[in-house]
């Protein structure tokens, strides 16, 4: 069979190779030649390109590609290219099989000990060397059923393994589905038949012409065929953070996985998928399907492959712990989410308590039995005593199993997976699972303005042109001289991205659809109002004809395009932030369209009478200017400062971006929920203040600060060395609500400083929104980074935790609600689980001390712990969030997971349930008229007495599950009960199964069928738990009550103030290293939490547009901030900083 399979796979591979060879005959260049060309690159690559292939044009001809218009888009042609050069995808490593997941689950130390004990118990049950033993009279009766207990424990262990494996398998399926959603959303601009088309990345083929622009992450290898000031960050491949300038005549090679940081251009695709440079590296790492299959027989290689390419983190963790013991205690530990840190600490605390009681239980049983048998009865050692000792040891191990909340990882996983799935419907595409619960703890949100708080549907509503201002409807019919009109139409049409355009409205809309940059779309709308056609101008001046381009970036805050006009004049058009561009102007067009001198006095007058009033109305002001050069005396285009100077101002446009109608209510909800919203924008201070007032971020009566980036830096930096001072920072940020004219570094410093601040004892948890490439560092630094799904660049999306599909602030509020719901769901389960654990553990301990046996058999305790807790985790983790979640303050970074209220509930119900069970244990036989089931001469027999104890315990636990739906002291625990069918469905099923176990599970579960009267008493004891909950709620919460699971706080560094990472690692190592190592020996909790982290990483690793984003392959996510935006290069408005109050 195996041989047949092998032959089939070989024949399939041979057929595939033959198809590839046949397809390559269609083209005059082979796959191997293209790979060699992209591997060589540099000067040698240029020589090969020119000499062997006839330059870029020659390569295009060999690939049958029209470099100007692109491929025709013919399906047959595309299929041939895919066969010849491959598809643009790297096949993911196949998922682990179900049996592999089972094997990993069964490696838990606790389960292994249970299996060994069960096997020993199973074997000893058949070992009877003679008839004289301490089990005299009933030995023959019990001999036939003694094996049941060992077998039942093994069955229970098998159930745990199956549940764990199925959980991991289901989780992987869910995230592969999520990954396919992400992949389908990733598109790229490609020229097909001379028209730009948005294609899924997988559909890009060798020979395609791709349009690349600022912010793109390249999906394939290729060469530049046309460029405008194109600069690329190749640090993900080379580790070099300096930007590499690309030009068709110098260094035209572009590599997949690298970022376009400046400029725009066109690229001829030469290698895709596994044949690109990224794909080749992945093949070397064994991260692709083919490689893993080839290396399967080789164990050593397979282990390496697992470590590097596995979609789960378990193997990586094992190797990391062995080889780099302080890795986890250094940077890794800082990356743990708030909930993970709290769960880890809580699990350690519970583990210590459980281990202590388990050891005490075994010691008490051993010592008491030894004293009675050997000291009092003077009996000699008999091999049959092993059976009793094994049973005691099993009881102790079972107490430990019950003490450790085994169902907690499942509850965490179900809560997060359920939330992720539901959040997709609320336009939140979650890339990192941790972000769900972290968002619920958020205390601050630093939001962009454009598109998030506003609609991002820009419209020119005010214009200053020809020495006259025009507002509202007059903008559509401005009387302009022909010369001015021509310059406006040509200047805006040429000096804007050609991917920005206005399309006819859809059936639902009445306004044209804006595609591309919204600010440019607004200006194009103004061109149409002036009676012009931007399409006609662009047809006259194609991108290939541009003399030079200075693309927009966050530093220069303007954009310039140089063209050669029909009359031979070299003209440069510039547009950008009005204060910045106007400063570069020496002339301005008058009402006749003629240039007149423009002085600094005129600048100040326009600033006060035109720009500031527009900004106060909440408008974004854009200045449009131009400059003519004499053809024979062209400047040095690389000297941007001198080139973009001495301009002639054409007009100043006031562009309105209306506030989203739902934002004001959403921000009010945030305030009510204790979350501070701050607006960080590149607009000037007046526009920012106006929008903040409209949104409700500030009010006219507030004393909050509205600062510009320049003033912000002056206040927080030391005068001597310009470094950020945390003490100075702490004086500014609590009152700061709006940061205007800010750079990406300002946003990064703001986020870092708030996270590091210790003013608030519970520490701040910060969420950030971003859309630009340079927002990447801030998105990475934040506890939760939101990238814009519509306007966001690929780099911003890569750095984010959650993608806002609709770019809407309201979606952030929904994420907060879901995050709090996840946190509460886990807390509900903990309250339920720990109550069960406390009762079961102390019941076993007291029973062992007094009656020599635990009232609950090992199989019964496993049923309660493993089966019911698994079902309870599913029931309590799927509660639907309500608006009530937004009426309380956030928990913050350090608040304990188990609050004092929860601890009161846990202890209150545990005491009540223990009293009831001990009452039945000691007084039950006489009150309920039944035989005493306590062991006689060490012999345990199933009885109605102990069955009733077991039944009452389960029913009290079931009714307490209803109480645990509310964890904040609410009195009505049934509120919303029937809105969650999963909860009441599981509750009913569990109740029915319990009836079956008691009435018909006599052998396996050591039960005896109960009468109707006894059942009624059991039910009554169960229902009284609901009444007892009301009494517990009346008990006031005091500070003396204990609290468990406080969050760990790790120091954060502010940019510009690096501290020794070695000291941080050592401190963190001393904090938790030994505890975590100990914990791994008794519970799967850490392992399963790492699996959660693994799927977070798998989303990063599998994305096709993020080929080389794996930490092993890149030096940095984005270029270092120092190479981008040092203080010396900040260009900030000179407008005086203002706040709501006088500063």
TrEMBL record:
Q: Which family does it belong to?
A: Belongs to the cation transport ATPase (P-type) (TC 3.A.3) family. Type IIB subfamily.
In terms of superkingdom, the source organism counts as Eukaryota
Residues in Cation-transporting P-type ATPase N-terminal domain copies? 52-126
Protein name per the record: Calcium-transporting ATPase
**Key words, A-Z:** ATP-binding, Calcium, Calcium transport, Calmodulin-binding, Cell membrane, Copper, Copper transport, Ion transport, Magnesium, Membrane, Metal-binding, Nucleotide-binding, Phosphoprotein, Translocase, Transmembrane, Transmembrane helix, Transport
Among SUPFAM superfamilies, the record links this protein to: Calcium ATPase, transduction domain A, Calcium ATPase, transmembrane domain M, HAD-like, Metal cation-transporting ATPase, ATP-binding domain N
Q: Which GO terms describe its cellular component?
A: plasma membrane
Q: What does this protein do?
A: Catalyzes the hydrolysis of ATP coupled with the transport of calcium.
Q: Check the record and name the CDD domains matching this protein.
A: P-type_ATPase_Ca_PMCA-like
Q: Which PANTHER family match?
A: CALCIUM-TRANSPORTING ATPASE (PTHR24093:SF369), CATION TRANSPORTING ATPASE (PTHR24093)
Provide one Gene Ontology biological process annotation.
regulation of cytosolic calcium ion concentration
Give the record's membrane topology: Multi-pass membrane protein
Tell me what reaction this enzyme catalyses.
Ca(2+)(in) + ATP + H2O = Ca(2+)(out) + ADP + phosphate + H(+)
Transmembrane segment boundaries:
109-127, 147-166, 346-369, 389-420, 829-850, 906-924, 944-962, 982-1002, 1014-1035
Q: Which GO terms describe its molecular function?
A: ATP binding; ATP hydrolysis activity; calmodulin binding; metal ion binding; P-type calcium transporter activity
Its principal location?
membrane
Composition bias, Basic and acidic residues = 292-314
Provide the E.C. number(s) assigned to this enzyme. 7.2.2.10
Where is the protein situated, by its record's location annotation?
Cell membrane; Membrane
Region Disordered, annotated ranges: 292-329
Please give the Pfam families that the UniProt record associates with this protein.
Answer: ATP_Ca_trans_C, Cation_ATPase, Cation_ATPase_C, Cation_ATPase_N, E1-E2_ATPase, Hydrolase_3
Q: Which InterPro entries match?
A: ATP_Ca_trans_C, ATPase_P-typ_cation-transptr_C, ATPase_P-typ_cation-transptr_N, ATPase_P-typ_cyto_dom_N, ATPase_P-typ_P_site, ATPase_P-typ_TM_dom_sf, ATPase_P-typ_transduc_dom_A_sf, ATPase_P-type_domA
């Amino acid at each position: 069979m195996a041989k047949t399979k092998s032959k089939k796979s070989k024949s399939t591979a041979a057929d595939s190779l033959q198809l590839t060879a046949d397809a390559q005959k269609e083209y005059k260049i082979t796959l191997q030649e293209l790979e060699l060309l992209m591997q060589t690159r540099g000067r040698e690559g240029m020589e090969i390109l020119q000499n062997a292939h006839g330059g870029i044009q020659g390569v295009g001809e060999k690939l049958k590609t029209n470099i100007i218009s692109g491929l025709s888009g013919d399906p047959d042609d595309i299929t041939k290219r895919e066969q010849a050069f491959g598809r643009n995808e790297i096949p993911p490593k196949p998922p682990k099989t179900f049996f592999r997941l089972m094997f990993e689950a069964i490696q838990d130390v606790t389960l292994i000990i249970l299996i060994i004990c069960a096997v020993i118990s199973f074997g000893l049950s058949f070992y009877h060397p003679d008839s004289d033993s301490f089990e005299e009279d009933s030995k023959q009766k019990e001999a036939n059923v003694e094996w049941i207990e060992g077998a039942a424990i093994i069955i229970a262990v098998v159930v745990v393994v199956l549940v764990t494996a199925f959980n991991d398998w289901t989780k992987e399926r869910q995230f592969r589905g999520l990954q396919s959603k992400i992949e389908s959303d990733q598109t790229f601009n490609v020229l097909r038949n001379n028209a730009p088309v948005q294609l899924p990345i997988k559909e890009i083929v060798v020979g395609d012409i791709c349009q690349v622009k600022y912010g793109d992450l390249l999906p394939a290898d290729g060469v530049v065929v046309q460029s405008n000031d194109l600069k690329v960050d190749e640090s993900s491949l080379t580790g070099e953070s300096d930007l590499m300038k690309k030009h068709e005549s110098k260094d035209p090679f572009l590599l997949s996985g690298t970022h376009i940081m400046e400029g725009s251009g066109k690229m001829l695709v030469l290698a895709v998928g596994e044949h690109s440079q990224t794909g080749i590296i992945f093949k070397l790492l064994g991260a692709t399907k083919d490689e893993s299959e080839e290396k399967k027989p080789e164990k050593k290689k397979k282990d390496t492959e697992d470590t590097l390419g596995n979609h789960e983190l378990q193997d990586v963790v094992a190797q990391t712990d062995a080889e780099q013991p302080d890795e986890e205690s250094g940077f890794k530990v800082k990356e743990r989410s708030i909930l993970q840190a709290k769960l880890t600490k809580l699990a350690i605390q519970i583990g210590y308590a459980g281990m202590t009681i388990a050891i005490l239980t075994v010691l008490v049983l051993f010592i008491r039995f030894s004293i009675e048998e050997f000291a009092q009865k003077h009996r000699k050692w008999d091999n049959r005593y092993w059976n009793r000792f094994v049973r005691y040891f099993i009881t102790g191990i079972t107490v430990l199993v019950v003490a450790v909340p085994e169902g907690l990882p499942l509850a965490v996983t179900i809560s997060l997976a359920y939330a992720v799935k539901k959040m997709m419907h609320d336009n939140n595409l979650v890339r990192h699972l941790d972000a769900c619960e972290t968002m619920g703890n958020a205390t601050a949100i630093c939001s962009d303005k454009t598109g998030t708080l506003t609609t991002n549907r820009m419209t020119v509503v005010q214009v200053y042109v020809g020495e006259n201002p025009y507002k509202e409807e007059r903008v559509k019919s401005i009387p302009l001289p022909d010369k001015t009109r021509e310059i406006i139409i040509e200047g805006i049409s040429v000096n804007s991205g050609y991917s920005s355009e206005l399309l006819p409205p859809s059936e639902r809309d009445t306004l044209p659809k804006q595609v591309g940059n919204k600010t440019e779309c607004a200006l194009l709308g103004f061109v149409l109002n002036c009676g012009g056609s931007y399409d006609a101008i662009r047809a006259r001046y194609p991108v290939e004809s541009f003399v030079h381009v200075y693309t927009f970036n966050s530093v220069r805050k303007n954009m310039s395009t140089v063209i050669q006009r029909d009359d031979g004049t070299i003209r440069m058009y510039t547009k950008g932030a009005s204060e910045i561009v106007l400063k570069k102007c020496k002339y301005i067009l008058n009402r006749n369209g003629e240039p007149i001198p423009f002085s600094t006095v005129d600048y100040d007058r326009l600033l006060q009478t035109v720009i500031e009033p527009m900004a106060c109305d909440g408008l974004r002001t854009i200045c449009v200017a131009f400059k003519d050069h004499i053809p024979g005396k062209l400047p040095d285009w690389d000297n941007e400062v001198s080139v973009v100077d001495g301009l002639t101002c054409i007009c100043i446009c006031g562009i309105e971006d209306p506030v989203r109608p739902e934002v004001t209510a959403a921000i009010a909800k945030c305030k009510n929920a204790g979350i501070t919203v701050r607006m960080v924008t590149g607009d000037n201070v007046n526009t920012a203040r106006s929008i903040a007032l409209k949104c409700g971020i500030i009010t006219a009566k507030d004393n909050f600060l509205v600062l510009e980036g320049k003033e912000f830096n002056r206040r927080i930096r030391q005068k001597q060395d310009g470094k950020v001072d945390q003490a100075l920072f702490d004086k500014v940020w609590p009152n700061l609500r709006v940061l205007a004219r800010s750079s990406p570094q300002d946003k990064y410093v703001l986020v870092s400083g708030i996270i590091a601040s210790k003013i608030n004892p519970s520490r701040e948890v910060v969420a950030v929104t971003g859309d630009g490439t340079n927002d990447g560092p801030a998105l990475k630094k934040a506890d939760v980074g939101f990238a814009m799904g519509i306007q966001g660049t690929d780099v911003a999306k890569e750095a984010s935790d959650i993608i806002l599909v609709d770019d809407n602030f309201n979606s952030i509020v929904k994420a907060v609600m879901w995050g709090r719901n996840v946190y509460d769901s886990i807390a509900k389960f903990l309250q339920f689980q720990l109550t069960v654990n406390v009762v079961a553990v102390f019941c076993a301990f007291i029973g062992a001390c007094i009656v020599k046996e635990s009232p609950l058999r090992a199989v019964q305790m496993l049923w309660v712990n493993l089966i019911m807790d698994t079902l309870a985790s599913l029931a309590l983790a799927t509660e639907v969030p309500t608006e009530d979640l937004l009426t309380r303050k956030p928990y913050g970074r350090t608040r304990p997971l188990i609050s004092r209220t929860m601890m009161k509930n846990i202890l209150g119900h545990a005491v009540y349930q223990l009293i009831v069970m001990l009452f039945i244990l000691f007084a039950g036989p006489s009150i309920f008229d039944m035989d005493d089931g306590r062991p006689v001469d060490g012999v345990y027999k199933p009885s109605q007495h102990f069955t009733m104890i077991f039944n009452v315990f389960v029913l009290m636990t079931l009714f307490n599950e209803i109480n645990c739906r509310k964890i904040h002291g609410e009195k009505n625990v049934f509120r919303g009960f029937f809105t969650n069918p999963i909860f009441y469905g599981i509750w009913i099923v569990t109740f029915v199964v319990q009836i079956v176990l008691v009435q018909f599970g006599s052998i396996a579960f050591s039960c005896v069928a109960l009468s109707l009267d006894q059942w009624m008493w059991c039910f009554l004891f169960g229902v009284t738990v609901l009444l007892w909950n009301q009494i517990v709620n009346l008990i006031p919460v005091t500070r003396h009550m204990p609290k468990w699971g406080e969050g760990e706080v790790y120091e954060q560094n502010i940019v510009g103030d690096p501290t020794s990472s070695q000291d941080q690692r050592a401190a963190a190592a001393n904090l938790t290293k030994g505890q975590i190592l100990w914990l791994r020996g008794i519970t799967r909790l850490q392992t399963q939490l790492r699996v959660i982290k693994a799927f977070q990483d798998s989303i990063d690793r599998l994305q096709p547009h993020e080929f080389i984003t794996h930490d092993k392959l890149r030096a940095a996510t984005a270029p270092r901030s120092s190479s981008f935006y040092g203080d010396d290069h900040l260009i900030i408005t000179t407008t005086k900083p203002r706040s709501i109050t006088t500063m």
